[in-house]
Amino acid sequence: MFATLSDRLTSTFKNLRTKGRLSEADIDATIREIRRALLDADVAVTVVRQFTGAVRERALSAEVSAALNPAQQVVKVVNEELVAILGGQTRTLAFAKQPPTVVMLAGLQGAGKTTLAGKLALWLREQGHTPLLVAADLQRPNAVTQLQVVGERAGVPVYAPHPGNQGADDVLPAGADPVAVARAGVETARQKQHDVVVVDTAGRLGVDAELMAQASDIRDAVQPDEVLFVVDAMIGQDAVTTAQAFADGVGFTGVVLSKLDGDARGGAALSIASVTGRPIMYASTGEKLTDFEVFHPDRMASRILD
Ligand code: GDP
C-alpha cells in the first residue's frame, strides 16, 4: 500500500531540495506534482483539493520562505497536512462509564468484519478486558460459525442464536431476527458482566436500503457506544462512496481500514477520515488475528513520506 504514492512524493521533494530559495513557480510546480500523485493514488478529488490548497497557502507563507531550508519546511508542511486529513489525533475505543461498552460493526459483505471482530476481541482481551462477541450476521451462510471459530482462536466467548448448535447455522430457524439476537447478546453481556460487547452485523455485496434499515434497527436496539465502519481498503474510490452511504444511513463513530496489507493505491485510506469526518481507529493488515493495529495518523504520514 502507498508504494507508488510514496515514491512519487519522495522524488518530488528530492527535486525541490536541489533548490535554495523557492519561488512561487517552484511551489506551484511542486503542488501540481503532489496533486497528480494523489489523484493517481485514487484519493478523492475533494480531499486532493483541500489538501493542496492548504499546502500551497502554507508553502507561500513566511513559515516557509523565512526558513533556513525552505524545501525541508515544505516537506514538514505536507507531513502535517497529511496527518490532518488522516484524522489528526490517534483515537481508540472510548469505554462507557457504565459497562458493557457496546461496539457495533458495520460494513459491506467481505469487508472483513468477522475477521476484525476476532482481532478486536483478542486485542481487548490482551488489554485486560472481558469481551463477548455477538453473532448478529444471519445473512451469510456460515457467518455464525466463522465468528465462533475466530472467537475460539481469540479465546473470547461468542453469543450466537443457537449456542448449543456449533457450526450449524444452516439449521437456524427461518426468519431468525438479527435485531433480537443483537439485543439478547448485549443483555447476556450485561448479565455475565462482560465489560465490552462486540456485535457483528450482516453486510451485503453492495449498499442497499434493506441493509441500511437492518443496521439502523440493530443500532437502535443496542444503543452502541461505538459503531465501527469496516471498509476494505482494496476497493479504492468505492470505499469513499460506501463510507458516505453508511455515514448517512447508519452513522458511525470510527473507521477500521481492512486489508491494508494489500497493494491498493491507498487513496481510500487517505480520503475516508476527511470525507466522513470520522477518525480511522484501527487497521487490519492480514488474515491472522494478530494482524491488527491501532491506526496512528502521524505514523502513516511518515510512512508515506519516508
Ligand atoms: P465480512 O463479510 O465483512 O465478515 O468479511 P470477512 O471477515 O469474512 O473477510 C472477508 C475475507 O477477507 C476473508 O477471506 C478474510 O480472511 C479476508 N480478510 C479480512 N481482513 C483481512 C486483512 O486485513 N487482510 C487480508 N489480506 N485479508 C483479510
Automatic annotation (TrEMBL):
Name recorded for this polypeptide: Signal recognition particle protein
Key words, A-Z: Cytoplasm, GTP-binding, Hydrolase, Nucleotide-binding, Ribonucleoprotein, RNA-binding, Signal recognition particle
Record GO cellular component, one term: signal recognition particle
Binding site for GTP: 107-114, 200-204, 258-261
Function: Involved in targeting and insertion of nascent membrane proteins into the cytoplasmic membrane. Binds to the hydrophobic signal sequence of the ribosome-nascent chain (RNC) as it emerges from the ribosomes. The SRP-RNC complex is then targeted to the cytoplasmic membrane where it interacts with the SRP receptor FtsY.
Gene name for this UniProt entry: ffh
Taxonomic source organism: Cellulomonas flavigena (strain ATCC 482 / DSM 20109 / BCRC 11376 / JCM 18109 / NBRC 3775 / NCIMB 8073 / NRS 134)
EC number, UniProt record: 3.6.5.4
Top-level taxonomic group: Bacteria
Biological process according to GO: SRP-dependent cotranslational protein targeting to membrane
